């Protein structure tokens, strides 16, 4: 909210004045009202392996995060560029593999990647688009610098919280909204449906049938699946609701079988088709990959996209952007050391107490070390892991992430935030609603914003002017 000299940034001037006039106890009351609304709606997430509490509310902070229109325009251009490059990279590694032959990305990072799917080799995808729905995690380190922290190219989650956060803020703070020109986010589901229909197979009718495929009630993001299906106006289906006949996917309905053209899947590759991947999976649809390869159904996102959101591959994104687009990256990566390289491993081991170390396939804030916050024992344990399997880790500097005013028990205080905008890539265009999901680390000094690690969310306001 503030510049280095303490002055309030222009985007926050109105909010800063409002915070000075509103009592902290009123903010706390509104926060409790928001929690009650979320609980009534049923917005929960599950924490796998947590026996104490399988269902939780993600904490919601009632003080919004604000971006200017100029900042958003710059972010949008960078996000569009990055997702274009990701799609080009995936199309290449499953076909000509020119970037591997050029030696810009090591072959073993692709071929030994658990998310690489040989079944997709030389298999075209509808309209050449692999990632229709991307969530790109952004961090800010100063007034002018944004970094990409992570690419989510498989089944990015959190958009339901972005939409519900906005509804709750409008309901609880209408007077604050009236003082700002906030760009809307509620058209996201219209954009998503338009994107899905635009990538329907060529054999589909003029009004393609779309569905959302969920693993079922016990999935951690099941609320989001039901929310999105309802907002999209499409059927929420499980694997048992679909079947394949003559390489065409059908949905069971009370009026008989109905052809399905586009499947927004929230099901991992492994469980998608027991005839191709895990034979013990009861969640998927036998034969769906045959229909996919025949070009009779579109899967959003495509199978095998996880190669692109691997943290080791992430470190090559600047080269990937230049290779496929011939452009300098608009959004830069966080400086990254690849522990698989001997010189960089030596540096990381020497500087371990100062760095953040992550597993290349890790997620959710797990499997990482934050050196400045770690104990000596934790550092030494990670040192052993690095020496034993260096290729499984990357390291980054401990960034001074931007903070936003946040309501905590002691009052309003700064807490670190990141931002996950959602990028929709269709056959006709790229769509990005202004804003995204701001995640906030509620623990003082914490840099981990993940909900599974105690993080919360905020509404994200992009000012129209």
Describe the model.
Helix content is 31%, strand content 22%. The chain folds into two domains: 294 residues, no CATH class; 60 residues, Dna Ligase, domain 1 (2-Layer Sandwich). 41% of the residues are buried. It has 14 helices and 23 strands. It is globular, with a radius of gyration of 22 Å. Helix 2 crosses helix 6. The two termini are 17 Å apart. The mean pLDDT is 92. By secondary structure, it is α+β, with helices and mostly antiparallel strands. A five-stranded mixed beta sheet has the order 3-23-22-19-18. The protein has a five-stranded mixed beta sheet with strand order 13-5-4-20-21. Strands 7-6-11-12 form a four-stranded parallel beta sheet. This is Circularly permuted ATP-grasp type 2 domain-containing protein.
Tell me the total number of β-strands: 23
Mean pLDDT: 92
Structural class: alpha+beta
Could you say how many structural domains there are in total?
2
InterPro entries: ATP-dep_Glu-Cys_Ligase-2, CP_ATPgrasp_2, UCP005522
Pfam family, one: CP_ATPgrasp_2
Domain Circularly permuted ATP-grasp type: 64-441
Protein name: Circularly permuted ATP-grasp type 2 domain-containing protein
């Amino acid at each position: 909210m503030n510049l280095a000299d303490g002055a309030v940034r222009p985007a926050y001037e109105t909010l800063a004045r409002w915070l000075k006039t509103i009592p902290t106890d009123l903010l706390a009351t509104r926060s409790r009202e928001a929690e009650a609304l979320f609980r009534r709606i049923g917005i929960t997430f599950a924490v796998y392996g947590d026996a104490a509490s399988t269902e939780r509310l993600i904490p919601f902070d009632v003080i919004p995060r604000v971006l200017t229109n100029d900042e958003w325009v710059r972010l949008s251009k960078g996000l569009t560029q990055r997702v274009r490059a990701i799609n080009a990279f995936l199309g290449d590694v499953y076909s000509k593999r020119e970037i591997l032959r050029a030696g810009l990305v090591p072959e073993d990072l692709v071929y030994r990647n658990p998310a690489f799917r040989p079944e997709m080799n030389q298999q075209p995808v509808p309209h050449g688009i692999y990632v229709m729905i991307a969530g790109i995690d952004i961090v800010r380190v100063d007034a002018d610098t944004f970094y990409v922290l992570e690419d989510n190219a498989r089944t990015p989650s959190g958009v339901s919280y972005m939409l519900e956060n906005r509804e709750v803020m409008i309901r609880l703070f209408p007077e604050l909204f009236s003082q700002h020109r906030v760009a809307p986010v509620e058209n996201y589901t219209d954009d998503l449906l338009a994107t899905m229909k635009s990538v329907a197979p060529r054999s589909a009718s003029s009004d393609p049938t779309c569905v959302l495929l969920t693993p079922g009630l016990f999935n951690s993001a099941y609320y989001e699946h039901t929310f999105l299906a309802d907002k999209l106006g499409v059927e929420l289906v499980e694997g048992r609701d679909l079947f394949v006949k003559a390489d065409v996917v059908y949905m069971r309905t009370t009026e008989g079988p109905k052809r399905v053209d586009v499947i927004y899947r929230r099901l991992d590759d492994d469980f998608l088709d027991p005839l191709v991947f895990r034979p013990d999976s009861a969640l998927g649809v036998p034969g769906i990959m045959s229909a996919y390869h025949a070009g009779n159904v579109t899967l959003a996102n495509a199978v095998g996209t996880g190669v692109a959101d691997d943290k080791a591959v992430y470190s090559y994104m600047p080269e990937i952007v230049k290779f496929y687009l011939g452009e300098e990256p608009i959004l830069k990566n966080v400086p990254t050391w690849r522990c698989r390289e001997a010189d960089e491993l030596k540096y990381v081991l020497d500087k371990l107490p100062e760095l953040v170390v992550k597993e290349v396939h890790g997620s959710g804030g797990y499997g990482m070390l934050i050196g400045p916050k770690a104990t000596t024992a934790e550092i030494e344990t990670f040192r052993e892991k690095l020496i034993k399997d260096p290729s499984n880790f990357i390291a980054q500097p401990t960034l001074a992430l931007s903070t936003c005013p946040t309501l905590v028990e002691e009052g309003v205080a700064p807490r670190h935030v990141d931002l996950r905008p959602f990028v929709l890539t269709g056959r006709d265009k790229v769509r990005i609603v202004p804003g995204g999901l701001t995640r906030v680390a509620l623990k003082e000094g914490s840099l981990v914003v993940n909900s599974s690690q105690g993080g919360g969310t905020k509404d994200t306001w992009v000012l129209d002017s």
